[in-house]
Amino acid sequence: MSIERDTWPLRLIGSDAVRRLLPVGDCIDAMETAFRALADGRAVQPLRTVIRIPRSRDSLYVMPAHVGDDGEPALAVKLVSLFPGNTAHGIDTHQGAVILFDNVTGRVRAIIEAGSLTAIRTAAVSALATRYLARPDAAELAILGSGVQARTHVEAMLAVRPVRRVRIWSRTPERARVFAREMTERHDVLIDVMGTAADAVHGADIICTVTAAREPVLSGAWLSRGAHVNAVGASTRDTRELDTEAIAKAALWVDSREAAGSESGDYLIARAEAGDAVSIRGELSDLVKGSVAARNRDAEITIFKSLGLAIEDAAAARLVCERAVAAGLPPTDFH
Q1: Where are the alpha helices (DSSP H) in the chain?
Q2: What domains lie within the chain, and their CATH numbers?
Q3: CB 208 within 8 A of CB 160
Q4: Which of 153, 117, 139 is nearest to 233 (CA)?
Q5: Which of 95, 172, 232, 237 is the most exposed, fewest CB within 10 Å of its CB?
Q6: Closest CA to 218 of 303, 139, 149
Q7: What span, in angstroms and rounded, lies between the C-alpha atoms of 320 and 326?
Q8: Could you tell me which residues come within 8 angstroms of residue 83 by beta carbon, excluding any fewer than 6 positions away?
């Protein structure tokens, strides 16, 4: 161990720097590497610890992980709060930090703002699932929700499929209109605001549900043959975005069977209502490794249920820190 390495400065990396250093396209590749490490047994991540704050919908998550690869392994823990009521105040529902440790000395290398990192890595994982599961010609995209995740998911889907049109629906129509204007200018793609979720989903090849809903916003009856769904918003066992029909009629993929069986209301509630008609076909790591076929036929409906894994945060944090060092950014850039 060198003295130079042991005296590296602690870096504070804020949301603006994260967005500059972690383009979604690059993050997709980093997530594929992380899930390949998971598939090969080179990653360690216990089920996250969740503290439910009494008499509220608020919670605190603790998510540690170690991801090994041929280069520099990533050792990190994310501490993140989920306060759904923040939406009413124009504040991101997720607040927190990812702490990245040096893999040799155990010293803290960086403290990274978690909201932006989470938004980017979550969309990148959805894009990775879409790369494997959506039909190659999928071009009609529906987004249910208009928050931070909706924005990163548009960019992520454009990176992996030839999307020519985006339909956006939100329970707050004005937010949907603002979203459409901003995203049209940023990505030069046609974005239509739809009056209902059903209208947005009808005929869509790819659907991303990125809401704070507690009850289903997507019905299986609306899904077209061959559609792919990224279900992102609901992350507790008593909330869901998809109804039981949607889960039962699709090939269901998850980021983690253990996490889905413990935390996913989309899966657990549907399983309670439909029994053996609901099952998990595989994990995203199975797709990356190629151990399970992605689709049985073009007309098959696929769903990827994302809960978010600590390996994703660790891999993304490592990449952000490496790029901050390479770019010569000052140790403190917490904006």
Answers
A1: 3-6, 15-21, 24-39, 114-133, 148-160, 173-187, 197-201, 244-249, 257-263, 265-274, 284-289, 310-326
A2: 3-118+311-333 (3.30.1780.10), 125-308 (3.40.50.720)
A3: no
A4: 153
A5: 172
A6: 303
A7: 10
A8: 57, 58, 91, 93, 95
pTM: 0.92
Per-residue three-class SS string for 60-93: EEEEEEEECCCCCCEEEEEEEEECHHHHHHCCCC
Q: What pLDDT digit, counting tens, does each position of 172-183 carry?
A: 999 999 999 999
Average pLDDT over residues 137-165: 96
Q: Is 215 left (phi over 0), alpha (psi -120 to 50) or beta?
A: beta
Token pair, residue 149, equals 């995740």
- Does residue 84 have a pLDDT over 90? no
Rounded to the nearest integer, the mean pLDDT of the chain is 92
In sequence order, the β-bridge partners of residue 11 are 110
Pairing of strands 140-144, 165-169: parallel
| Interatomic CA distance for residues 302 and 7, integer angstroms | 49
d(CA 5, CA 81): 32
CA–CA separation, 123 and 91 (whole Å): 19
* Residue bearing tokens 């916003």: 217
In Å, how far from its chain's centre is CA 115? Answer: 12
